[in-house]
Amino acid sequence: MNQPAVSPTLDTLFQRTLSGQPHALALLDPLNKPRVTGHQPRRLTYAEADTAIEALSAYFVESGLPANSVIAIQLPNTVEFVLTVLAAHRAGLVVAVLPLLWRHAELTAALNRTAARAIVTMSKVDGVNYSDLAMHAAAEAFSIRHVCGFGTDLPEGMASLDEVMARPPGTTRAVIQDGRKAAMISFDVTAEGFRPVPRPHFSLIAGGLAMSLEADIKQGATVMTAFTPMSFVGLASSLAVWLLCGGTLALHHPFEIDVLEQQINEHECQVLIAPAQLALRLGDSDLAARMPTLRNIIGLWRAPEQVAASEAWIAPHAPLTDVYLFGEAGLFGARRGENGMPVAVMPGPHGAPREQSGSSIAGEILLTPKGTLGLRGPMVPIAAYALPQPVDTLTAQLPRDYVDTGYAARIDRPSGAICITAPPSGIMAVGGYRFLSNDLQEWARRLGQGALLTALPDRLSGHRLAGRAQDNARAREALSELGLNPLMVEAFRDRSGPA
């Protein structure tokens, strides 16, 4: 009897390259890892990475984590993140990625919403004690049974995964490798509030294909990623792109420009994946002379409404591909032409590569009746964004077959292209951290009389928090009590003006 074709998983792609070139270099840690986490940088071949993945996967199985249960991960952009994700998938688990900017309140909400059975973190990242943060959040999440960490000085009760990787692998579990199975859960903020967004393997791979095919990444390339991995695009632009090209993945924990340039040159990277504004800054500084091995640049736009007004790309030896990001809903990419300017993006189905006739359809772009941008296609999790059914009607509503991103858009009459004009109303973003603008009022109220807290536009991170208070020490304390990350709390540096 013929068996139906099974789509690949991320682990399937890893094992495909492992079987063909086990001793090829697979993973490279950031050069500044001692400062970021206290660990020394690691260089792993595919065989060495597989041994570590086997050990971590066996630990998850031996710990009693059932197949298809959720394991939450809050890690920096280092080798440990990649190994943990692949090990979880090999053990048949679903990965919930938790941004590093999240603090206690958001962690607890995410763990409870996903019924996570375990959480994995790092002892410290950039001086912030994430192991204590995970322990406190786990104490308020009824479903958590295991708290695991990398690094030294872990709290009592937290299992050391460094010790796990140092011993031989143990128990394995037979897992059906099917790309239609759930792979990850990320988290988005919409006008309706905080929501988890689950995705299968094929959706992640579709996102990686859309980027790698549009940018024309060669097989066996060394890919440098300098984008925080704790989101759909973070996984698609790092793990998926790397596994699809079967090359080497070099990691950089954002951002130290000098260290990034040093890594690119030492590792002879051909591809750089980074926030678009950072990529444009590098392109303005004689990229061909300073980083001659680069052949492809993928710029990730957290604020896609800014693409059309961006400056020209002036490094023709390494073409720039603009990737438009729409929270956790989806993405699409467009490689710039010879003039270095952003290309027009037309509504309707788009292939990968975009300009090649007969290419596979990567997705579809549409203008909704509300004048906003809609997405559909293999990477877009339509069910996760489905609107609740109204309770005051007896007639079932037809399910929507697209996700409304909330980004204001219009059709340019002369060209017929889609023009994205504004971000979703009522939503702010500080780096990769999205929150409702109404939250600012609550945060400001906690700062005391005469305090000011606002989100200012920022070309690199979307917005940045700025504020002023009569008592800045008390302001920082109040914001910390609300669960804000220290990077955001430092908006209150002095009383002379906004940070």
UniProtKB/TrEMBL annotation:
The keyword Ligase applies. Pfam families: AMP-binding. InterPro entries: AMP-dep_synth/lig_dom, ANL_N_sf. PANTHER family: ACYL-COA SYNTHETASE, ACYL-COA SYNTHETASE FAMILY MEMBER 3. GO terms for biological process: fatty acid metabolic process. GO terms for molecular function: medium-chain fatty acid-CoA ligase activity. This is Acyl--CoA ligase. Belongs to the ATP-dependent AMP-binding enzyme family.
